[in-house]
Amino acid sequence: MKREAKGGTAHSACQSLPEPTSAASEKQEPETSGTDRACWLSQAAAQSVPAGRAVRLWRDAALRARKLRGGSGEPESKSEPDAGSSEGPPSPPAAAPLRSPLAAALGELEALNLSGRGLEELPEEVGAALSGLRVLNLRRNRLSRLPDAALHHLSRLAELDLSHNRLRGLGDGGALAGLRGLRKLSLSHNELGTEGPGLPPCLAELCRLEELDLSFNRLRHLPEGLGHLRHLRALDVDHNLLPSFPTPLLELGALEELDCSGNRHLGALPEGISALRRLKILWLSGTGLAALPEGLCQLSALESLMLDGNQLQALPAGFGSLQRLKMLNLSSNLLGEFPAAVLALPSLEELYLSRNQLTLLPPRLCQLHQLRTLWLDNNRIRYLPDSIVLLHSLEELVLQGNQIAILPEGFGQLSRVTLWKIKDNPLIQPPYEVCMKGIPYIAAYQQELAHSQPALKPRLKLVLVGLKDAGKTLLRQCLMEEDGQRDDVGSLEAGSTQPREGPGQLQDIGRVPVGCCPSLEPWGASSAKVPVMQQLEHLPVEQQDFPSHVPSHRVKGKTPCPMLSLPLNAPRVPSGLGLSGGSKGIEVMDWTADAERGLTFIVYELAGDRSYDVIQSFFLSPGALYVLVVNLSAYVPQHFYPSVGYFLHWLSSKVPHAVVCMVGTHADLCAERELEEKCLDIHQQIAQQEKRDAEGLQSLVQQVDEALGQDFDLRCSNPHAAFYGVSDKNLRRKKAQFQYLLNHRPQILSPVLPFSCRDRCQVRRLRDKLLSVAEHRDIFPNLHRVLPRSWQVLEELHFQPQAQQLWLSWWDSARLGLQAGLTEDRLQSALSYLHESGKLLYFEEHLTLREYVFHNLPLLIDILNIFCQQDATVLLQKLLSDTHIDELRATQLQHYVEGFLLHGLLPAHVIRLLLKPHIQSPEDLQLIMELLEKMGLCYCVNKPKCKPLNGAAAWYKFPYVKDKVPHAEAWINSTNLSGQSFVVEQLQIEYSFPFIFPPGLFARYSVQINSHVVQRSDGKYQIYAYRGKVPVVVSYRPARGSLQPDTLSIASHASLPNIWTAWQAITPLVEELNVLLQEWPGLYYTVHVLCSKCLKRGSPNPHTFPGELLSQPRPEGLTEIICPKNGSERVNVALVYPPTPTVTSPCSK
Ligand SMILES: Nc1nc2c(ncn2[C@@H]2O[C@H](COP(=O)(O)OP(=O)(O)OP(=O)(O)O)[C@@H](O)[C@H]2O)c(=O)[nH]1
Ligand SMILES: [Mg+2]
After folding, report:
1. Does 2 or 258 have the greater pLDDT score?
2. Which pLDDT value is given to residue 488?
3. Under a CB-based contact definition with an 8 Å cutoff, are residues 547 and 564 in contact?
4. For range 731-754, the mean pLDDT
5. What residue spans define the domains of the chain?
6. Percent of the residues in the chain that have a pLDDT greater than 90, as a whole number
7. Which of 678-682, 733-737, 803-807, 870-874 has the lowest mean pLDDT?
8. What is the mean pLDDT of residues 527-550?
9. In sequence order, what DSSP letters do the residues of 762-795 get, joined into one string?
C-alpha cells in the first residue's frame, strides 16, 4: 500500500531508467548485483520497465506484510553480500585511470550500479568522468565518507543510492551540494548521527527531492531547513533516535508518505500534524505514543496508518473522519475496549488489533463491509458478535489466543476466509477438533447441529505413564474398582475393569488387556485372575527398568540400578506372580468415574516396557490428563531422571503444555519420613529440571534478540557470529519457536501425591483429585464440548459390541450413519471429527484408506502391540496356534521369528499368520499393511515402486525392532563417509537434540525416507542408501555425556562441480525429517550444516554453519565463506547453501 499510494507519478523524470530503488522498495529487497551486472546501459534498462512494475507490486505486498506482521528490521531473503567480507575488496572499477575514448563513452553513461563492490572510497574524479549519469547505485559498499569533489559535475543525477554503507556523517554536505537535480536519495542503513548532527543543513537545498530515505541511522535531529523541500513526497526516518516529532516535517505540504516507526522515544505527535493534508501513508510503529492528537483526524487523505507497538488506550474522538482509511494497525497497544470510532470507517479493508486487552467486540462490526483482514489474536475476547458472519468480504480472520468457547451460528457463511487461526481458545461449540480443520468443517458442524439436538458427553483421555513396575496397572485397577464402591481391596481383579464400552454395553475385546489375546497369551490368565491382595504379598520392590536410551549421564550418582545389573535373560519377577512381565504395550478402557455427572475417562495405560515406545508416542495427544506414576519405595534421588525427568521431557516434546499429575505409589512400603523426603526430592528435582530447561531457552531467546539487534550485513560478514548469515525472518521464527517452548512448559499440577493401593482413603483422594482436575474449566476447557446428537450416536454405533471387525468399509459406516440420522454427504465431517478427536482412524485424504473406517482402536492397538513384541516364545505361540502345523513348518516359522527379532524383517504370509484371527484374506492383509505404512511403522522392502508384487512374497521391515547388527554395510563406493581421505566433497546436515531424542524417531524416519531411496542397507543406528546414483547415509548417534547430545545426521558426497547432485540427494530427506519433527511440537532441537573442509580433514569437531541457511537463497555474488575453525581457509558457498532453498525451514513449527 505504501508504494501503491505513491501512485504512478513517482518516476516521470526517469521513465527510461531501470527500476528505481525507491526508499520503500529498497527496504524489502536489495537490487540486482554481481560482477556481470555491475553496470547497465540505459538502453538495455529501458526494456525492464514493465517487468519492473510487476516486481514493484510484489515488493509492495511483501514489504507491507513484513511491516505488518514481522515488525521492522533488516530486509530478508536474497540480500546482496558484502562482497568484500570473504573475498577481500575487488579493485573498484571506478578507480581505474580514465582515458579517452573510454572517458567519452563513460561520459554518456546514464545509469551505473556499483552496489556490493566492497568500495571503501569514491575517487575524486568519478563525478567528472560520469557527468551524464542520472542513476548512481552505491549501496552495500564500505564507504565511510564522501569526498566533496567526488559527486561534483553530476548535475543530471536524479537518483543516488548510498544505503548500506558506513557513513557516519556527511561533513558540511559539500559532496551533495552540486546535486541540484536529485529527486531520490537513499542514505538508509548507515551510521549517520554517530558523528555530529549527521545531516548537513544544505540537504535542504536539494529542492527537487521527491523521495528521501534516512531510515536505520542514528539521527537525533533533522536539519531545520528540511521543511523547504516542497516537492518531497516520501520521507523515511524510521529506526533512528529522534527524541520527538521533528517540527520541520510539519512544513512538508506535499508529503504523501511518512515513516517514523522505530524511533522509540517519539512520545507524542504535535497537533500541527494536521498540516500534512496530503499524507496517505503514516507509519508510527513502536514510537512510544500514549495518545493521539485530534489533529491526526484531519488527515483526510490517509489510507494506511500503522500504530502498532505503542501504549494507546483509546483513539481520539474524531478518528472516524479518516474516511479514506483502508489499513489500520493497532496491534500491541493497551486497548481495553474496541475503539468504536473505527466502526465509522467505511473504506477499512484491513484491521489489526492483535495483542491488546479487548474483551468484547461490538455487534456493529458488520458495518465494515469492505473488511478483508481482521486480526484479533491474543486478546481476552470471550464472545464474537453474531453479526460477524455478515462480514462477507473477510479473507483473513485471526482469533487465536482468546477465550472464545462458542462460535456464532452461521459462522460457516464466512466461506471466503482462507487464513484462519483459532488455536488456544477454550472451544466447545464447535469443538476444537472441528474448528482447526477450517470454515467448511465448521459449516458442516453447524448445519448438523441445526438438524439434530446438541449432545453433551464429557469424556477425557487419561494417560498413565511411568517406568516398568511403577504401579500403573494396579493403580488403574484400584481407581476403577473404587468407582465400583467395593470395600474389599482383595476382591479386585484385573478382569473387572471396564473396557471401552458401546452404548450401554461392555465390549468384549477390552475385557483383558488388549495386548493379550486370552487364548494365546501365557501371562494373560495369571495377570487377569490374581486378586490384588495376593499380588501385594509378592511385591518386587526394587525393580526399576530405565529406558534404554536414557543417557548414562542423566542417571546421577553411583548406585547401580538393580535391574540394570541383572543379566539380560534373568527372570525379572518371581515366576507365578500375578503381573509377571508387566503390561504389554498399550491398554485402553473406559472408566465412568462419575456416573452422576456422566464424566467418563478413556484410560490409556502405557506399559513401562520400552519396546513399545514407537507406538506409544501416537497416543500422547493434547487435551489429555497425564498421570506420571513413580514407585516411591524403589525411588532414589539418583534415579530422578529415568523415573521422572525423562517422562516429563518425553511428554512435553509431544504435547506442549501437557497437564501432568504426579503420583507416587507403594506408599505403604515407605516409612512416613522416607515418604516425605522422597516426595520432596522429586518435587525439587522437577523444579530444577524445569528451571534449567527454561533458563536454557531463555538464554537462546536472548542470543537471538542480540543477533536481531545487529545489522544483517554485520551478521553476514562475521563467520564467528552465532547466527552467521541467518536472515531476520528466520531469526524471528527461531525466537517465536523458543518463546512457544517457553510458554508451553508442562503443567505439573501438584507435588507428588503419595498413594497406596492398600489405603482406600488414598484411592478415593486420588480419584477425587483426577475428577476435580478434569472438571477444572481453566485446565480442560474443552471437556464440555457440544456435539450434534447424530455425531454422538454415530460414535456409539461404531463402538457397539457386534462391531468386532478391525475396520468398516465406507459403506458399512454409511449404513451406521443412516441409523444415526446422517445422510452420506454428512458422514464425512462426522468421521473427520471422530478421527481428529482420537476415537477412530479415518484418513480422508488417502487414496485407499479413505474407503475404510478403522473404528476398533483397541483391536488396532492389539495388533500394534504384536509388532512390538520382543519375546520369541510369545510370537511363536501365536504362529503355532494353528493345530495343523507340522514340525518342518514349525521350524521354518521359528526362523522367521528369529529373523524378525534380529532384523525387524517379516514376510507377508507370516504377518498374516500372526494377525489371525483379525486378518483373513490377502486383501485384509494388504489394507492393514498400508495402514501400518501410513503410520510410519514399517515399509515393504521388495515392492517395486507403484507396482504390485507379482506373486512374490512381500517382505516388510519394522525398523523400530532394534537391529542387532550394529552397523549397516558400508558398501557405498567402498568408502566410509566419516573416513579421512576424500577426493570428493562431503555434505552433512546434523540435527542435535539437547533435551531428549524422541523415542521411535529414528525408526519412523527410517520408514519415511523409504520412498526416496533405493538399495538401502540398515544397521542399528545407520542407513546406507542411494538417491538415484548418489549415496546417502543417515546416522543416529546417541548422546555421549551431557555436552554431546543425541544427533541425527544426513550425509552425502560428490565432487565439487557435481555437488548439486549431493544436495539433490539429501534435501528431500532433510525436508522429510522437518515434516516428521512437526509431530513433536514441543521438542527443542538444532540443525547445522557441517563444514566440509573440516570433514575432509577428518576433524573430530567440525565447524557448524546454522541450519537456517538451508532455507535461504544463496547470497548473490558470494562464492566462498570463511570457516572459523580453519583460520582463513574458505569453504565454497555451494557446500553450505543448497542450490535451491528447502521449502521447510528447520525452525518453522
Ligand atoms: N505394596 C504395594 N505394591 C504395589 C503398589 N502398586 C503396585 N504395586 C505392585 O507393584 C508391582 C508392579 O505394579 P504394576 O501395576 O504391574 O506396575 P506397572 O507400572 O503397570 O508396570 P508395567 O506394566 O510393567 O509398566 C505389582 O506387583 C503390584 O502389585 C502399591 O501401592 N503398594
Ligand atoms: Mg502395567
Report:
1. 258
2. 39
3. no
4. 90
5. 106-414, 426-451+787-855, 587-696+741-784, 864-943+952-962, 986-1135
6. 42
7. 803-807
8. 38
9. HHHHHHHHHHHHHH-TTT-GGGG-EEEHHHHHHH
CATH pick for 106-414 out of 3.40.50.2300, 3.40.630.10, 3.80.10.10, 3.40.1260.20: 3.80.10.10
Read off the pTM: 0.73
Q: Which atom from ligand 1 is nearest to the alpha carbon of 606?
A: 25
Alpha carbon of 876 to those of 199, 353, 879: distances in Å?
Answer: 86, 64, 5
Using the predicted structure, report yes or no on whether residue 319 has a pLDDT greater than 70.
yes
Is the pLDDT at 979 greater than 50? The verdict is: no
Strands 501-502 and 459-466: unpaired
Q: Which three cell numbers stand for residue 962?
A: 532394534
In 3D space, the residue among 266, 269, 195, 280 whose CA is nearest the CA of residue 234 turns out to be 280
User: CATH assignment of 587-696+741-784, given 1.10.260.40, 3.30.365.10, 3.40.50.300, 1.20.120.10?
Assistant: 3.40.50.300
164: left (phi over 0), alpha (psi -120 to 50) or beta: left
**Protein residues with CB under 6 Å of any ligand 1 atom:** 466, 468-474, 535-536, 539, 579, 582-583, 607-609, 629, 665-666, 668-669, 756-757
Ligand 1 midpoint to CA 587 (Å): 15
pLDDT tens for each residue of 606-630:
999 888 888 888 889 888 999 999 9
Question: In three state form, how does the secondary structure of 905-964 look?
Answer: EEEHHHHHHHCCCCCCCHHHHHHHHHHHHHCCCCEECCCCCCCCCCCCCCEEECCCCCCC
Range of weakest confidence among 43-57, 109-123, 862-876: 43-57
Nearest atom (ligand 1) to Cα of 541: 10
Q: Which residue has the cell 533405493?
A: 1014
Average pLDDT value for the chain? 78
Ligand positioned closest to the Cα atom of 492: 1
If 0-12 CB within 10 Å is exposed, 13-18 middle and 19+ buried, where does residue 1143 land? exposed
Q: What is the CATH number of domain 986-1135?
A: 3.30.310.200
Buried b / exposed e over 222-251, threshold 16 CB at 10 Å, is: bbeebbbbeebbbbbbbbbebeebbebbbb
